[in-house]
Design goal:
About 0% of the residues lie in helices and about 55% in strands. The protein is built from no helices and eleven strands. It has strands at about 1-5, 10-15, 20-25, 30-40, 45-50, 60, 70-75, 80-85, 90-100, 115, 120-124. The strands form two sheets. Strands 2, 4, 5, 6, 9, 10 and 11 form a seven-stranded mixed β-sheet that branches. Strands 1-3-8-7 form a four-stranded antiparallel β-sheet, with no helix packed on it.
Length: about 120
Amino acid sequence: QVHMVESGGGLVQAGDSLRLSCAVSGRTIGSYVLAWFRQAPGQEREFVAAITWNAGNTKYADSAKGRFTISRDNAKNTVYLQMNNLKPEDTAVYYCSWRQGTRLATWTAEYEFWGQGTQVTVSS
């Protein structure tokens, strides 16, 4: 079992920055991937970014490239999503997720465990 708790969401204006955090606990051994997804009202959950815990390899959705950065702090068992130049279309609930292995998957069905989500709202 893996437990994750997201934090750092909030209400910001377009052009602002936010850093989301996801504290991970439980079965944190071996090789695994942590990812951020987001879900806007009435839309499907979509991939944002992923990172391999051991090597730190990363993958981003096109919408996140150049603006978002995923990183991890092994000592704190925490993964971050730094979001810069936020846009109203980034408004969504952001979820942290976990999967075993090293493949940077982008489909929700490939992730086994999820956090409860944190709301990000960007006003224009």
